[in-house]
Amino acid sequence: MTEVVSSRGAVPEWSSPFDAFRLIGRGVTIATCVPVALVVGTILTFVNEGSVVAGGDASAATWLRVGINYLVPFIVSSIGYLAPSRRRHQPRRSRR
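RE: above sequence
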């Protein structure tokens, strides 16, 4: 796997969704994307679940939704972080 060097440093190239999620799992996007997920997840939690949590009526399902409020922005920002280093497959040209 080669790397693309940008202002963010070296980001490994990837070509499939599996490769992208493997890079996310290895922590390539942690430093940049966790702060984004914390800010966006907190805002989403206040908007979507704030009254339930503040009222003391939070159930296990509420806390699951709170977790998803943080997970989704992390994944979206991670994919955005990795997007410039995606290696697209070149179609094969037929020889004539």
